[in-house]
Amino acid sequence: MSGRIDIALIGVGLVGSAVIKQLASVPALSSLKVVALQNSRKTLLAAPGQALALENWQSQLENNGVPALSLEQLVTELKNIQAKNQRHIAVVDNTSNDSVACFYPSFLHAGFSVVTPNKKAFSGSLDLFSAIEEAKQDDSKPLVYQESTVGAGLPIIGTLKDLVATGDKIKKVEGVLSGTMSYIFNEFSPAAGSTTKFSEIVSVARQNGYTEPHPGDDLSGSDVARKLTILSRLIPGLAYELPRGFASVSTQSLTPAGLADEANADVYVQRLPEFDAEFDEIRAKAQAKHCVLRYVGLIDVEKKVIKAGLEEYPADHPFATSLGGSDNIISFTTERYQRPLLVQGAGAGADVTAMGVVADLVRVAERRG
Amino acid sequence: MSGRIDIALIGVGLVGSAVIKQLASVPALSSLKVVALQNSRKTLLAAPGQALALENWQSQLENNGVPALSLEQLVTELKNIQAKNQRHIAVVDNTSNDSVACFYPSFLHAGFSVVTPNKKAFSGSLDLFSAIEEAKQDDSKPLVYQESTVGAGLPIIGTLKDLVATGDKIKKVEGVLSGTMSYIFNEFSPAAGSTTKFSEIVSVARQNGYTEPHPGDDLSGSDVARKLTILSRLIPGLAYELPRGFASVSTQSLTPAGLADEANADVYVQRLPEFDAEFDEIRAKAQAKHCVLRYVGLIDVEKKVIKAGLEEYPADHPFATSLGGSDNIISFTTERYQRPLLVQGAGAGADVTAMGVVADLVRVAERRG
Prior knowledge:
The structure is a homodimer.
Chain A: E1 5-10, H1 14-25, E2 32-38, E3 42-45, H2 57-64, E4 66-67, H3 71-85, E5 89-93, H4 98-102, H5 104-109, E6 113-115, H6 120-123, H7 126-135, E7 144-145, H8 157-165, E8 170-176, H9 179-188, H10 198-207, H11 216-219, H12 222-232, E9 250-251, H13 265-271, H14 276-288, E10 291-300, E11 305-314, H15 318-321, E12 327-334, E13 341-346, H16 350-368
Parallel strand pairs in A: 1-2, 1-5, 5-6, 6-7, 9-11
Antiparallel strand pairs in A: 2-3, 3-4, 8-10, 8-12, 10-11, 12-13
Helix pairs in contact in A: 1-16, 9-10
């Protein structure tokens, strides 16, 4: 089906393991060969001309791996492998690590493509983003694919790229972009109304593993701000608007002011009920207008407004009626799509995130394999 | 941005003109060179090493074109151009012609890629579909892209291909796939209820150009059946289920039995009110259950059921609440997306159809340019 490429996987946690599982279980993907695996402790490299056997990668990595290489060393080893195998190499970053993200320009200058669900490189400083854009111009034509950075496997980045590439004018991008925020407000403010307390929903979400270990990391809105940064950098006219990346996005934190400095997650959750009345009030105001509350990201291209925060939507709006679970939804309003183009579905989870990564690897193999 | 390819455009009506406009107006697409234009009357070929100037293509085609070449002759001329230009050629079929569709295997065997919004080749006989699949294996590795055959520029075909390629198991595909049917039932059966007569809505739709010249061609459901055929042939286990293509799909026609043979469109529309009571009854039954009516296509993979027809949906279902105008909506339920992945938006129109075609051309240029 696709050309043959070699793959180096950095990070073999939940998402990385799901990537390996998909590569190993789909016969048509057998031309995508894993030649390197690395986690924070160990590195496993394939012998020249060989690929790693994926059936028992855990024990191989544990028993046959060397102590984890530095990223500089990894590049050197991958260059050796490439010199012998004569195949294009794609580096997959399955971490959420800043230091790996900062290394993308080096991977690209070495001639390797980069595929990743890691938001850090594309949502951080403009310097890093610009360095990546510049490194993509390298003579070896390395590719960068990042579908899973927004909405996991949902066709969001690819759709926005197609709209832009074919000359459509993006007017507005708006969406529920955080699975955790989606869950919380689908429960807190359903179209039919609710009286459940905000703190109670957050507490249940945390118990079920839907939040970060510290729920304040979700309620800060920074995940949404990062995704808005990634999207806005794909839009002509906005690409260079956010000098400090997600830190430049106007972001409403839902952590009550009184808990802003509470680093202890247990204490944070215990004290959250003190602020339920504030949330009740905001909800009551929305319900009085027959509206629901959603935590959304918004990019208004003409006004150059990029912001994350709580918004009210009428009860018959797709954001009010259509969502469930921890679904993401994104709406593109453009010159061609005056009625918006909508994409909706699970926006988090190892399998759907890995799907976006593997589909991106197929694209690299089709183009460079 | 993308590699350089040469393009031959067959059909320069509404969609073809929009394709040319997009190619001419987006600077980043300047490496996609049009070397041939053809309509039913004339053919215009570029000189060796040259591309056609797109600013004044209409007058060029009219004044400098030769009488339309046969498709065999066109292949010969394109081979000459390719021998001189040494670039990959993509043939774009912007017609809805059966005879052009039947020629795809010849284009592919000649080494040309095919990009098209024409549904005919992929929704007709299994023989033609199989011949195309076989011709794609040609040594010259020609590509076939067809995003705009279902939902125009909406990411439907690409999304289904990614789900399959990464090993997801498709369980159900369900959607409002005809813009005309969407408009008619959004008006006839909105979530809030309606008493407007079916015949009246069809008549208005026809006056506004939303239907085929003979509305029976929409109400037959064959457009939906064709799209279901295209989608089902991308699903492992179903690809070879429909021997006669769309004619093998179980399809409910909305043309009343008494009008089945009425070839005169004016008479058809004049007589439609005779059957309004039947439609009123179906609507009343749905409304009594707090449901709306939608004309949908359904693929149930496990049961191997592929059918097009009227279905009832509860008033809070996305198909009931979220649609407007002539939107398409499609829902993929899979092993990974237990809550379905939804794509929604304008599914017809020259600009959005051309967008799908041009985005496909970019993919061909990225892979073969």
